[in-house]
Specification:
The protein is α/β, with parallel strands linked by helices. The chain is about 55% helix and about 15% strand. The chain has an eight-stranded parallel barrel with strand order 1-2-3-4-5-6-7-8, surrounded by seven helices. It binds erythose-4-phosphate.
């Protein structure tokens, strides 16, 4: 499973990259706003800065919600850097835009997926990734992981190339569960990724090894 980090924070992206396990980055307009990035030129500069830190795919979201606007923004984003994947919302014009981008060889991430039918539609339009938001489904007492399972079955039935990018991952167990189900990618916060490191028996075992080493090397 590929690991993407879900942030526009350059420090956190660098930290995940330095760990040697990072395959890409996802951003969204809320994450950009959280970092205080505003204005077209600054946003484009920031995407470029992210691409220079990581080797993998960087999802950059269009703001327009009409077909022509999405095409214009998406083409500019794709021209910015070869690592950019154009993030398009799951709306009618978004599906049309994904088909256009797919025909032109521009990679896309269809965002705000909350049902397997939406994922199927995006795959048929040629999306590179679909992003089911598991955390936001959990927030409204609906099983987000179940959606990943359903999409996995559908994509496997028809051998769609579209990759399942489990998004809105909130914690470490989400990552493990996504890997068990067979998500192709997960995107989550640095805290959830670093949570995978933790086990009290690792800590106590290491402390014991070091204490024994110190005793016998006095
Ligand atoms: C996905 O690409 C989104 O940026 C993100 O995962 C949304 O996560 P949230 O529900 O924690 O905001």
């Amino acid at each position: 499973m590929k690991f993407f980090i879900d942030t526009a924070n350059l420090q956190q992206i660098k930290e995940a990259q330095d760990l040697g396990i990072l395959d890409g980055v996802t951003t969204n307009p809320s994450l950009m706003a959280k970092e205080g990035i505003s204005g077209y030129d600054n946003v484009m500069k920031h995407y470029k800065a992210i691409c220079e830190i990581v080797d993998g795919d960087v999802s950059a979201e269009v703001i327009a919600t009409d077909y022509d606007g999405m095409i214009k923004e998406g083409e500019a984003l794709a021209d910015l850097h070869e690592q950019i994947v154009v993030k398009v919302p799951m709306i009618k014009d978004g599906v049309k835009a994904i088909k256009y981008f797919s025909d032109k060889g521009i990679r896309t991430n269809c965002t705000l997926i909350f049902s397997s039918g939406q994922a199927l539609l995006a795959a048929k339009a040629g999306a590179t990734y679909v992003s089911p938001f598991i955390g936001r489904l959990d927030d409204i007492s609906t099983d987000g992981l179940r959606l990943i399972e359903d999409i996995r079955i559908i994509f496997d039935n028809y051998a769609y190339d579209t990759q399942i990018l489990a998004a809105s991952v909130r914690h470490t167990m989400h990552i493990i569960n996504c890997a068990e189900i067979g998500a192709n990618v997960m995107t989550g916060p640095l805290s959830a990724i670093l949570g995978l490191l933790k086990h009290p028996l690792t800590d106590s075992g290491l402390a014991q090894f070091l204490a024994d080493h110190a005793k016998s090397n006095k």
